[in-house]
Amino acid sequence: MALYFGVDIGGTQLKIGAFTKDGALVDKWTADTDISNAGSHIIPDIANEIRQYLTGNGELQPAGIGMGIPGPVDRYGYVRTCVNLNWNDFYPVKELGKEFPDCRIAAGNDANVAALGEYVQGAGKEYESAMLITIGTGIGGGIVLDGKILAGAHGLAGEIGHITTDSSAHECCSCGNLGCVDHIASASGIVRVMKEMLAENTTDSIIRSLESITAKDICDAARGEDELAIKCLDICMEPLAKGMAFFTHAFDPEVFMIGGGVSKGGDTILEPLRKHYQENLFLTDRGADIIVAELGNDAGMIGAAMQVL
User: How many angstroms separate the CA atoms of 306 and 106, rounded?
Assistant: First the structure.
């Protein structure tokens, strides 16, 4: 029996899934990511993990292997640079192809392939076009149109976290730009804004009693009707909602799927997003649906496999 594999390559962990030709998940496991020696061990380690799995499961053969990579990947599977994996001027598709010459190999940006996973098997399966936005330490984005990932000429399509929505901003984003969505709407941005609000006023808030603050704490407080936490999330979701309106005017998706750790905040995140999104739409009254993604940490692994299915 032929199997297809999806590999979500993270800076610390590989998430690997084995799938049937119908896209059903057969098995999944994790392995450590060895980024030493300019990331040269990553592809051989992936090959070894898949070979060991096949060896332990009888007469199975790999028909396709898809990878999700935390950085821009062009249409040919080439990576100019990927800081998290120490890759520079690297062609992971060709390298893995050397290990499995008779196997179909594909690669894409991790947010893009996660969007494909949600589109095929998750929250987006009832839609023709969709965008996944992940809110975690940073903001990621992936676009799927008519069943195909929109990667762009250089693999940069969907990078909603690094568009500018505040031209008056004075603090630099990690990318070096000013006014990025990522700088305010990410988990780290939410925490930073909350700390600034606590320092600037004396409004009562349960957050004041915490020794350390996380975005989850702020969402939990907002759910408990903590006014300062509600205000914080309203401030932080506004630039992301503006970015979503920009993307609506650019390619008009049917749905925005919100994933990443902060998405577990549910309505505390969705309500300000929906409000500010509607405020920033000018060419249409309705715009896209805004819903929570469904696949969690498996989205990237599933989407990686969907590239070769």
Answer: 10
Residue 123 has pLDDT above 80, yes or no: yes
**Residues 149 and 267 placed together within one structural domain of the fold:** yes
Among 71-85, 235-249, 285-299, the least confident range: 71-85
Of the candidates 95, 16, 57, the one whose C-alpha atom is nearest the C-alpha of residue 298 is 16
Looking at the domain assignment, is residue 149 inside a domain? Answer: yes
Average pLDDT, stretch 125-139?
A: 93
How far apart (Å, rounded) are the C-alpha atoms in residues 238 and 272?
7
**pLDDT greater than 80 at residue 164:** yes
The reported pLDDT for the residue numbered 20 is 96
Q: What is the pLDDT of residues 2-37, one digit of tens each?
A: 899 999 999 899 999 999 999 999 999 999 999 999
What's the rounded Cα separation, in Å, for the pair 248 and 131?
10
Is the CB of residue 247 less than 8 Å from the CB of residue 254?
Answer: no
Handedness of CA 250, 256, 261, 265 (dihedral sign): positive
Q: Are residues 279 and 138 in the same domain?
A: yes
Sign of CA dihedral 61, 13, 214, 183: negative
Task: Output DSSP code: residue 286.
Answer: S
Cα separation, 119 vs 93, whole angstroms: 23
Same domain? 255 vs 134: yes
- Mark whether 146 and 258 lie in a shared domain: yes
Same domain for 66 and 156, yes or no, is no
Whose tokens are 């990667």? That residue is: 151
Q: Which of 218, 293, 279, 291 is nearest to 245 (CA)?
A: 279
Residue closest to 80 by CA, chosen among 92, 88, 71: 88
The CB-side HSE value for 118 (13 A sphere, CA atoms) comes to: 34
Cα–Cα distance measured from residue 188 to residue 155, given in angstroms and rounded to the nearest whole number = 25
pLDDT at 118 over 80: yes
Domain region containing 285: 125-293
Instruction: Give me the mean pLDDT over the 172-181 stretch.
Output: 77
